[in-house]
Write a structure and sequence with these properties.
- This protein is an alpha/beta fold.
- It is 32% helix and 17% strand.
- The strands form five sheets. It has a seven-stranded mixed β-sheet, with helices on both faces. A six-stranded mixed β-sheet has the order 16-15-14-17-18-19.
């Protein structure tokens, strides 16, 4: 069976991504899941893990065995890892436990226990040692006799999600086989440890049940909610990326998103003058309003200032402030201390920036508004830096805008900038094509507009769910 490799650095943990999009009957659901899976795949590789991708999980696991990985995370299309890097941090702990398999293990009553296909972790070394048995596909009304596992009385939720299972002694006839029936029975027979996912794994992933439309309609509320909040009512008080430095002289014009304090690093590291303009360009009006307040702020106690401002703005909604701030509230103080350590004469610096720099604010969608003139947000000035961050590879948007559209619109924007101001330095932290094409950062993430490399979708490494030709 065909196995496609999206290569990265980690040599111990591999992700095996199984394509189930052919089981989705609803066209719109299938499109959303394909778009989501593109982002999930890219995100995994971006976190430093190789992804083996295909339509057959046994073929993927066979490849993981032959490549001598120690652990495999098997996931299906329709699974998303949420809350930034939290799942991957939990994974590094989870693989150190004593286990053969970790996952969701529902007790299916008339059917034998299930290893839920949304996501599970398998110890590849143990799997190899017992001869790499089949996982076991679902099969309805496939009567068979099995040893009944022992299980905890308590459940994670409802009455079919035991906290643990263990080898039993009594047998019974089960009416159905659920995904994973064989690997579970093999593990219990050989007394290999099976673990149910701990909270730090469960709470940092999401499954959308795309092959069952009633469940998908409920689960998709999370996707839509994330997209709406991120575009209208979310602010990043500190950035999650590192700014770029150029040594090309003072910045005369800086175009940047309305988030965090990295724009100050751009100015201090590259230089600024009384002719410098900083234009905050963003589709998120709430973020623009937060930034407008920041440039009037006195420079003292940023965590308290930003919390007070957002609380005041949102108190009529009676919601937790954490729903409007994109990083944990508890981390604000640590970020602020780190910022002050970089800027030891901060109050003097802040006073100088406010005295010299001209601030502008532009409400615009650079990702989807192709008809927006460049002149609406960009001036013809030398030594211009345009920081575009990850606007074309942003997880709340990705499920609803295909990679093809994002790549084409990204190319279109670069070309428009190059025609208007070819010397402008464009900076991306991520691009729409990242991890689908193997290119150096130079001319791909950081370059003048005239030299920035454009990418075509037919140049991208293609996952199986796009092999119908929609990336050509």
């Amino acid at each position: 069976m065909n196995v496609i490799e999206f290569k990265s650095r980690n040599e111990e943990i591999v992700f095996c991504m199984v394509d189930y999009t052919h089981t989705i009957t609803d066209d719109w659901t299938r499109e959303v899941i394909k778009n989501l899976s593109d982002f999930v795949l890219s995100n995994i590789v971006g976190k430093g893990y190789t992804v083996l991708q295909g339509v057959n999980e046994e073929a993927l696991l066979t490849r993981a065995v032959s490549d001598n990985y120690k652990h495999a995370v098997v996931l299906s299309t329709g699974t998303e890892f949420i809350n930034g890097s939290a799942f991957f941090e939990a994974l590094e702990h989870a693989v150190k436990l004593d286990y053969f398999i970790q996952g969701h293990i529902p007790d299916r009553g008339e059917g034998y226990y299930q290893l839920h296909e949304q996501c599970y972790i398998i110890n590849i070394e143990m799997y190899r040692d017992i001869g790499s048995p089949i996982i076991g596909k679902s099969s309805y009304y496939d009567y068979h006799e099995q040893v009944v596992p022992l299980r905890s009385e308590e459940n994670i939720h409802d009455d079919y999600t035991p906290v643990w299972i263990a080898p039993g002694t009594e047998t019974r006839v089960y009416a159905h086989k659920w995904h994973g029936w064989n690997i579970i029975s093999e593990a219990l027979e050989k007394n290999l440890p099976i673990l149910v996912f701990q909270e730090d794994i469960r709470n940092n992933k999401k499954f959308y049940y795309p092959d069952y439309i009633p469940a998908f309609r409920k689960a998709q509320e999370y996707l839509y909610g994330k997209q709406v909040v991120s575009s209208q009512a979310l602010f990043y008080p500190f950035n999650t990326e590192t700014p770029a430095y150029f040594n090309n002289g003072n910045i005369n014009q800086l175009v940047v998103q309305a988030s965090g304090l990295n724009w100050i690093d751009y100015l201090t590291q590259n230089g600024y003058t009384s002719e410098t303009t900083v234009n905050f360009v963003d589709n998120n009006l709430f973020a623009l309003e937060c930034m407008q307040e920041i440039v009037k702020w006195d420079g003292r106690d940023y965590p308290t200032f930003i919390k007070n401002y957002i609380n005041e703005r949102c108190k009529f909604l009676n919601i937790d402030i954490q729903q409007r701030i994109a990083i944990p509230i508890s981390s604000l103080e640590e970020h602020w201390i780190n910022f002050l350590q970089k800027n030891t004469q901060w109050l003097d610096l802040w006073k100088d920036i406010k005295n010299k720099v001209t601030f502008k604010f532009t409400h615009a969608d650079l990702v989807l508004n192709r008809s927006l003139p460049v002149e609406a947000w960009l001036s013809n000035k030398s030594n211009t830096v345009i920081h575009l961050s990850n606007i074309f590879n942003y997880d709340p948007t990705a499920p609803f805008v295909s990679v093809r559209t994002r790549v084409e619109n990204e190319n279109f924007l670069i070309s428009k900038i190059a025609e208007f101001l070819p010397s402008a330095c464009i900076v991306f932290s991520q691009r729409a094509s990242d991890n689908f094409v193997d290119l150096p950062l130079r001319n791909h993430h950081i370059a003048s507009a005239s030299e920035m490399q454009l990418i075509k979708t037919n140049e991208l490494q293609c996952p199986t769910w796009h092999m119908n030709g929609d990336w050509q």
